[in-house]
Design a protein that fits this description.
Radius of gyration: 13 Å
Number of strands: 3
Order of helices and strands: HEEEHHH
Distance between the termini: 39 Å
CATH architecture: 2-Layer Sandwich
Helix content: 40-55%
Shape: globular
Largest sheet: 3 strands, antiparallel
Length: 94
């Protein structure tokens, strides 16, 4: 799935990723103050090719359908957190 860089920027904002830009743009998803996962992509021009968007989807631990929902907006931050909880990726602090 080829997507626009603007769509990735919207995902970074929607998921409230902590962002750092160098040669690449890095975002960390945090939950309750803990870094859970990292997402990155290169700066540059044009759209993001399918293999790179698949890598971003994988870094976010999403299925193809959930990734599409994240881009198209039905999937919210709370819904994303719920997916990660269901997969056991994030848990509450003890």
């Amino acid at each position: 799935m080829q997507i626009k860089k603007a769509d990735i920027g919207k995902i970074f904002e929607k998921l409230k990723l902590e962002v750092r830009s160098t040669k690449h743009r890095y975002g960390w998803f945090t939950f309750e103050g803990r870094k859970i996962l990292r997402v990155h992509y290169s700066h540059g021009r044009g759209s993001i090719p399918g293999r790179v968007s698949d890598k971003i989807r994988s870094q976010l631990k999403l299925t193809q359908k959930d990734f599409g929902d994240l881009i198209e907006c039905p999937l919210s931050l709370e819904g994303y957190e719920s997916i990660l909880k269901d997969k056991g990726i994030i848990t509450r602090k003890k």
